[in-house]
Automatic annotation (TrEMBL):
<dbReference type="GO" id="GO:0019287">
    <property type="term" value="P:isopentenyl diphosphate biosynthetic process, mevalonate pathway"/>
</dbReference>
<dbReference type="GO" id="GO:0004163">
    <property type="term" value="F:diphosphomevalonate decarboxylase activity"/>
</dbReference>
<dbReference type="InterPro" id="IPR053859">
    <property type="entry name" value="MVD-like_N"/>
</dbReference>
<dbReference type="Pfam" id="PF18376">
    <property type="entry name" value="MDD_C"/>
</dbReference>
<feature type="domain" description="Diphosphomevalonate decarboxylase-like N-terminal">
    <location>
        <begin position="8"/>
        <end position="173"/>
    </location>
</feature>
<dbReference type="InterPro" id="IPR036554">
    <property type="entry name" value="GHMP_kinase_C_sf"/>
</dbReference>
<dbReference type="InterPro" id="IPR029765">
    <property type="entry name" value="Mev_diP_decarb"/>
</dbReference>
<protein>
    <recommendedName>
        <fullName>diphosphomevalonate decarboxylase</fullName>
        <ecNumber>4.1.1.33</ecNumber>
    </recommendedName>
</protein>
<keyword id="KW-0443">Lipid metabolism</keyword>
<dbReference type="InterPro" id="IPR005935">
    <property type="entry name" value="Mev_decarb"/>
</dbReference>
<dbReference type="GO" id="GO:0005524">
    <property type="term" value="F:ATP binding"/>
</dbReference>
<dbReference type="GO" id="GO:0005829">
    <property type="term" value="C:cytosol"/>
</dbReference>
<dbReference type="Pfam" id="PF22700">
    <property type="entry name" value="MVD-like_N"/>
</dbReference>
<comment type="similarity">
    <text>Belongs to the diphosphomevalonate decarboxylase family.</text>
</comment>
<dbReference type="InterPro" id="IPR020568">
    <property type="entry name" value="Ribosomal_Su5_D2-typ_SF"/>
</dbReference>
<keyword id="KW-0444">Lipid biosynthesis</keyword>
<feature type="domain" description="Mvd1 C-terminal">
    <location>
        <begin position="187"/>
        <end position="314"/>
    </location>
</feature>
Length: 338
C-alpha cells in the first residue's frame, strides 16, 4: 500500500481572523492575511490500512509519540476530517496517520495551522482525491472544513490571504507572494508555555458578545488592502504599523468578550514596550503581533533580526526564541515517518 507524506508550515497573521460568519462552514467574518513560518512545521505520513479503526499518532519536539483518542477538541476535529474525506472519496477504508511537529508542544505556538494543512493534504492523496489536492483553492476549502481557519492559509507558501467569502465556494486561500518575495523575519519570543484557557474555536463564538466587534470588522476592511499592498510593495513601516494596530484591535475584542479572554501577560507587555522603545530610541523598525496567546511574534527585517533576537533573549520574561523566515506551503516530501 502506498504512503504519502506532507510537510506544512504554521503561519502568523498580519490581519487576523477572530469571529465567524458561519460556524458550520467555518467562514471568517473578515479577510485575513499571513506569513508562513519556516521553523514551525508539521510532517505527516498517511497510509490506508485494513481493519475497522483509524490510528492517529502525534509527536512534538522532545516528546514521545502519543496515540490520539477522540476526546479533545483538536483530536475530534482530526477524526471528523478523516470521516469527511473518506465519505467524499466514497472509499470505506481506515487510515494510519503519523504526525510530527518540529517545534515543542509547550512553545505556545498553535500546531493546528501546520497540523490540519498537512493532515488534509495526506488524506486527500491517500483517499485518491488528487484533483482536489492539486487545485490549491479547493485544497484550502477542504482544510477550512476541519475548523482551523489559520490552517487554510498554510496551503500556500510565503504571504497568503484568506477570503472570508459568504459560502463554501467563495471562502478560500490565495497566495499574495511566494516565500522568496521578501526577507522578513518573525522572532517568536516565548514568555508563557501554558495551554490557552479559551480555545480559538470557543473564541470565534464569543467574539459576537464584544461591543467592539462591529467596529473592528469595519476597521479590518480598511486595513486589509493597506497590509496587502505593503506586502506587495515591500513597504515595511506601513506593514509594521498596520500589523501592530491590528493585533491590539483583535485583543481589544478578546478582552471585551463575555466571558473576557486576557491572553497577554506581563511578559507580552514588556516585549511590546521594549520593541516600541527600540523604534523610538534606536530607529530600528520592528513590530509585535500576538495570536490567542501571550507569546510575542516580533516582525522585523532580516538585517535587524540578530540584534532583535539577542535583545529578546536578554528580556527576563523570555524563556526561548524561535527564528522564522517565510517558508514554502504544504508540499509532498519523500521521507515517510513509518
Ligand atoms: C488568533 O480557528 O485558525 O490565530 O486553529 O487555534 O489557529 P487555531 O485557530 P483558528 O483561528 C485563528 C485565530 C488567530 C488569528 C489568526 O491566525 O488569524
Amino acid at each position: 500500500m502506498s504512503k504519502v507524506t506532507i510537510q506544512a508550515p504554521a503561519n502568523i497573521a498580519f490581519i487576523k481572523y477572530w469571529g465567524r460568519l458561519d460556524h458550520k462552514l467555518f467562514l471568517p467574518l473578515n479577510n485575513n492575511i499571513s506569513m508562513t513560518l519556516s521553523s514551525c512545521t508539521t510532517t505527516t505520513t498517511a497510509e490506508l490500512i485494513n481493519g475497522p479503526s483509524n490510528m492517529v499518532e502525534v509527536k512534538f519536539l522532545g516528546k514521545e509519540y502519543t496515540q490520539l483518542t477522540s476526546d479533545s477538541i483538536n483530536a475530534r476535529n482530526i477524526f471528523d476530517q478523516i470521516t469527511r474525506i473518506k465519505t467524499l472519496a466514497k472509499l470505506d477504508r481506515s487510515v494510519h496517520v503519523k504526525s510530527e511537529n518540529n517545534f515543542p508542544a509547550d512553545a505556545g505556538i498553535a500546531s493546528s495551522a501546520s497540523g490540519f494543512a498537512a493532515l488534509t493534504g495526506v488524506l486527500l492523496l491517500v483517499y485518491g482525491l488528487h484533483a482536489l489536492y492539486e487545485d490549491k483553492k479547493e485544497f484550502s476549502r477542504q482544510v477550512r472544513l476541519c475548523g482551523s481557519g489559520s490552517a487554510v492559509r498554510s496551503v500556500y507558501g510565503g504571504f497568503v490571504e484568506m477570503f472570508a467569502g459568504h459560502d463554501h465556494e467563495s471562502s478560500y486561500a490565495n497566495q499574495v507572494a511566494d516565500e522568496h518575495h521578501w526577507d522578513l523575519v518573525d522572532i517568536v519570543a516565548i514568555v508563557n508555555a501554558d495551554k490557552k484557557k479559551i480555545s480559538s474555536s470557543e473564541g470565534h463564538e464569543l467574539a459576537e458578545t464584544s461591543p467592539l466587534l462591529t467596529a473592528r470588522i469595519e476597521h479590518t476592511k480598511k486595513q486589509f488592502p493597506i497590509v496587502r499592498d505593503a506586502i506587495v510593495n515591500k513597504d515595511f513601516q506601513t506593514l509594521g504599523e498596520a500589523l501592530e494596530l491590528e493585533s491590539t484591535s483583535m485583543h481589544a475584542v478578546m478582552m471585551t468578550q463575555n466571558p473576557p479572554a486576557f491572553y497577554w501577560g506581563p511578559g507580552s507587555i514588556s516585549i511590546m514596550n521594549q520593541i516600541r522603545e527600540l523604534r523610538e530610541q534606536k530607529g530600528i523598525l520592528a513590530y509585535t503581533t500576538f495570536d490567542a496567546g501571550a507569546n510575542a511574534h516580533v516582525i522585523c527585517q532580516k538585517k535587524d533580526a540578530a540584534t532583535i533576537e539577542h535583545l529578546m533573549q536578554k528580556n527576563p520574561f523570555v524563556k526561548s526564541t524561535i527564528y522564522n523566515e517565510p517558508a514554502p506551503g504544504a508540499h509532498e516530501v519523500s521521507n515517510h515517518l513509518f
